[in-house]
Amino acid sequence: MKNFIGIDIGSLATKIVLINDGKLLDHKTERSTYDFKRVGHNLFDDILSQHQLERKDVFVMSTGYGRNTIDIADDRVTEITAHARGAQYFFPDAASVIDIGGQDSKAIVMSKKSGSVIDFQMNDKCAAGTGRFLEVMAHALEVPIDQFGILALQSNKPASISSTCTVFAESEVISLFARGASKQDIASGIHKSIARRVAGMAKRIGVCPKLVFCGGVAKNDAVKKYLEDELGFEIIRPEYPQLTGAIGAAIIAEDKNKE
Amino acid sequence: METLEIFEEFSLYLKEMKSQGKKIIAFISHDNIPEELIDAAGFIPLRLIFAGNDELMDASHDYLPPSTCAFAQTCIGLFALKPRHFNFLDLVDYFIVSNHCVSDICASEVICKYFNIPRLNFYISYMRNPNSEKYFRLEVSNFRKNLEEIRNGPISDDMIIESIKKYNEFRKVIKDINNLDIKGSIKLKLMQKAFLFGPNILPELRDFIASNENSISNNSKSIDLLLTGCSIFMNDTLIDLIEEGGGNIVFFDTWIGYNYYSQQFKESTYNHVKNPIDLLASRYINNAYSDHSVPNFLENRITHIEEIYRNYEAKTGKRLGIINHIIKFCDHMSLMSSFFKNNLQEKGIKVLNVERDYSRANRGQLSTRIEAYLEMIQSE
Questions:
Q1: B52-78 in b/e burial notation, b at 16+ Cβ within 10 A?
Q2: Residue B160 covered by a domain
Q3: Which of B350, B365, B372 sits opposite A80 (nearest CB)?
């Protein structure tokens, strides 16, 4: 077996990758919607047909929120293990991972000797510290989400956002704006807030360099910068930060097939 | 036997006991309630060991805020809603208010006050020293007097010693169940049933042990686990999630489990005892692992877990995962959870802190954490 598919079914986005002999051949991403099984099937069918592959030619490893439900998977692995392996695919000497997705965030520490996971921490109970937090705030300030980080980095005087709850923070943001704070300063305060929260969770398990920052939110330069400020060291981003989980799942499948 | 069937059987049992004139004495507190005295009085001790759900927790919010212990919320919710399988709670005659923790006190007081159940007080010192033993002895004596008043007659020393012997044997049998090499969920269900019915089902427990004592579990692929922290109560699906994820609990280091049966007397002790109240009081001072053992509760717990871990590793050659189960918002367990985990991980023992309430929405989050932890252990 040479072709391995990793499918990461997240609460917001489903990502699929095709790996052959350790090389990333293709990847696709689509919003999961309420019918993530259908989305997963469609992505799977697309990638097979585009590479002239049949079902029997591939081994499928699923991960993420919907890993146990998607019926095309041959095996499953949690997103913790998948992200750790995926980070090491891009950076073989990676020692820790921070992943900030649409509705959760996680921190993972790996063994420097073996690369296996030695501890992890998750936040999947509260929107604060996730991509959702940024989405809600960007909407409140009427700023496109892909511009939000750029706006934040324009600030010299970040506003202080004291609320830890997304709902109350949104009210606080509206109130700050009404009192004359600039969008840049508010945006910066919001990004610092998410960085502080995630860094707090990550420090509890002793994250250290090399730390790989992945997930959809990793594309946001302001979150990256403020995370580095909080952690006190530089963090690195893979070429495809949103695909780390899917890539990790595919590589784990390949590793297992070699054994 | 399924849990709901156990509840139905238990309901019939309690009704039968009630028809014989026996009083039902309920309590939440886990440690140090001298159920032997309740039994010696001819009454039935009923320990509330039932897991909750969203409806039960919601029903408690007329009495307690949501940011309180989910188990305490459940106990109140059970009395507020009296779901069909818990109609036996109507049979409770008295409720013991004790201070295992603040949530125990609050929930017990709420139940007594708002559901009109007469209360019996039994308070315990937090220290372990000669003065606290004297105080405990006083509480045990007073408890005896209260039970004698309800009974309208004395509880003789001989009656108490007979109950102590019976419960001591019961604890030994619970220990034997905990040590069987069978699937954790089967072991747990049996222990839970035992906690409900008490020594009355000793014959059934002994039969089960006899038919399983030489069994070797077919769980060679599953990861062996020790469960510590809060107990897994009846009708809780946590153990199913653990087993679905590939884990098997081989040792229950919780109140339904080791904490309970570790409090045994040696036969030589009670065969020569002059005053059984002194014996019951001595169990308090000797219960070094109890939650009421300041100072050094955390250190004692870490040493205890490390010892079990090393012995298990030496005996089986296998790794043992440690799951520290914390029911939100248990101050007692959650405030110490980081220290507990960090201390053990420094000794090379991996720990998963699982903090949860009884909400259905938790299922996916719990299963991800458990499965990720099991993957971590497997990759070692």
A1: bbeebbbbbeebbeeebbbbbbbbbbb
A2: no
A3: B372
**Tokens, residue B346:** 């420094």
Say which CATH class A1-91+242-259 falls into. Answer: alpha beta
User: Domain boundary at B155, B182, B217, which?
Assistant: B155
E strands, chain B, in order: 24-27, 44-47, 94-98, 119-122, 223-229, 247-253, 321-327, 351-356
Q: Give which of A119, A123, A201, A203 to mutate to test B binding, by max B Cβ within 10 Å.
A: A119
Q: Say which amino acid occupies B368.
A: T
Distance from the A247 Cα atom to the nearest Cα atom in chain B, whole angstroms: 17
What CA–CA distance (Å, rounded) separates B107 from B76? 6
Tokens of B160: 């108490």
Structure tokens at A93: 């000497």
Q: Are B120 and B206 members of one domain?
A: no
- Sheet strands (E) in A85-222: 96-100, 105-110, 117-123, 211-214
Nearest CA distance, B341 vs chain A (angstrom)? 10
The reply to whether B371 and B245 lie within a common domain is yes
Does B255 fall in a domain? Answer: yes
| Total structural domains within chain B | 2
Q: Does residue A65 sit at the B interface (CB-CB below 8 Å)?
A: yes
Domain ranges of chain A: 1-91+242-259, 93-237
* A204/B338 Cβ within 8 A: yes
Tokens of B211: 């038919």
Domain with B38 in it: what CATH number?
A: 3.40.50.11890
Q: Matching CATH topology for A1-91+242-259 and A93-237?
A: yes
Answer for the pair B277, B141: CB distance below 8 angstroms, yes or no. yes
Tens digit of each residue's pLDDT, chain A (259 residues) = 789 999 999 988 999 999 999 999 999 999 998 899 999 999 999 999 999 999 999 999 999 989 998 999 999 999 999 999 999 999 999 999 999 998 889 999 999 888 899 999 998 777 788 888 898 999 989 999 999 999 999 999 999 887 778 888 888 888 888 889 999 999 999 999 999 999 999 999 999 999 999 999 999 999 999 999 999 999 999 999 999 999 999 999 999 988 7
Segments forming the whole domain that contains residue B221: 165-378
Comparing CB atoms, the residue among A77, A114, A122 nearest residue B375 is: A77
Predicted TM-score (pTM) above 0.95:
no
Inter-chain CB proximity A77 and B368 less than 8 Å:
no
Question: Is there a single domain that holds both residue B183 and residue B285?
Answer: yes
Looking at the partner chain, which of A79, A117, A124 has a beta carbon nearest the beta carbon of B379? Answer: A117
**CA distance linking residue A217 with residue B22, whole number of Å:** 64
Nearest-CB residue to A81 (from B338, B367, B372): B372
CATH code, A93-237: 3.30.420.40
